[in-house]
Amino acid sequence: MKLTNKKISAEAISAVKEALSVIYWKKEDLQQFIKLTIDNSAIVSTINWSLTKREIVKELITRMTNRIDIYESDLINLILAVTDFNDFGNLTYWDEDGTKTKKAKEAVNRLRTLSKGFIQITKEQEEAKLRKAVADLKTKKALSLEQELYELKNEFNIIATNPNFNQRGFQLEKFLYKIFLLFDLEPKGSFKIHGEQIDGAFTFQNTDYLLEAKWATEVNRSDLATFCYKVETKFKNAAGLLISIDGVTKEAISSDFKSIIIMDGIDLLSILDNRISLNDLLFKKRRKASETGNIYINFNELTK
Questions:
Q1: CA angle, residues 7, 39, 100, in degrees to nearest 5
Q2: How far is it, in rounded angstroms, from Cα 277 to Cα 73?
Q3: Sign of the CA dihedral 131, 136, 141, 142?
Q4: The pTM is what?
Q5: For the chain, where are the E strands, in sequence order?
Q6: In this structure, are residues 203 and 194 in contact, taking their beta carbons and an 8 Å threshold?
Q7: Any residues with CB less than 8 A from the CB of 12 and at least 6 apart, and which?
Q8: Which of 36, 30, 60, 63 shows the shortest CA–CA distance to 48?
């Protein structure tokens, strides 16, 4: 954190000294508070803690203001931490008549009053800094995603040239695992359950999906019926995603298939070209299937 163009007043510096001297009764509590508040906590160990609290605080703040080039952010952190201080319970045991707590509250309130404008500017600058950091992170992630999608598309093109359909099927399963991992969909690789081969699984919006991947010919009605049976006999709330690179036959689609949605090569390329995220495409397909009963609408049709 950097100081704003508006300098901290001498009155505010005096007020933070007073407040730090009275908000804690025990010096070890004060020491812990300061150590946890500032970044350059090494300075805490160089203070003479055998002095009185007022002398300790005076030494600390004086050293910080004398070397503002080093301790400017720590000084602001202290001011912000003290103005946010509202738990005076540590004083209760030694405060029979309540005067110590009253004095501490008054000191904190005085600091709040004297530093109000400065703190507002500082917090606004910090919020702006945070917004910029978030924007920079989004940009960095977007660039990283674009690069990873570019590499995955190259891998996809290599798989597409493999004339061995069995090998290509296994390669597709591993390839899809990478895509689902990229979009944080908790993928699981192929497995067998009750003798049935499952190409994979993933979780999307609290729903578990079974995955079937095919890359040879168009999927027919029998293939869809078999996959639906796999899905509907596994979990009560499970759903299925069939990815058929070459699509499905016109005769295959039926309103009887209510537990699955279908993706094809057009869908996959739209993701790899970064025209839509996998998550958004799944959401649109599932919503369209719920609204119309059509389980197979590819990216081009969805965006018409």
A1: 75
A2: 40
A3: positive
A4: 0.54
A5: 191-193, 196-198, 200-204, 207-214, 239-244, 260-264
A6: no
A7: 79, 111, 114, 115, 118
A8: 60
In the sheet where 260-264 sits, what is the strand order?
200-204, 207-214, 239-244, 260-264
Question: How confident is the model over 163-219, as pLDDT tens digits?
Answer: 888 888 889 989 999 999 989 898 888 765 555 567 888 999 888 899 999 887 788
Task: Assess contact for 271 and 228: CB atoms under 8 A.
Answer: no
The string of pLDDT tens digits covering residues 61-113 is: 999 999 988 998 899 889 989 988 999 999 999 998 999 999 999 999 999 88
The type of residue at 65 is T
Residue 37, class by beta-carbon neighbours within 10 Å (0-12 exposed, 13-18 middle, 19+ buried)? middle
Largest CA distance in the chain: 89
SS3 253: coil
> Which residue type, as a one-letter code, is found at position 201?
A
Domains along the chain?
10-129 (no CATH), 164-302 (3.40.1350.10)
- Give the residue among 151, 174, 159, 260 at the shortest CA–CA distance from 216: 159
Angle at CA of residue 33, ends 29 and 39, nearest 5°: 145
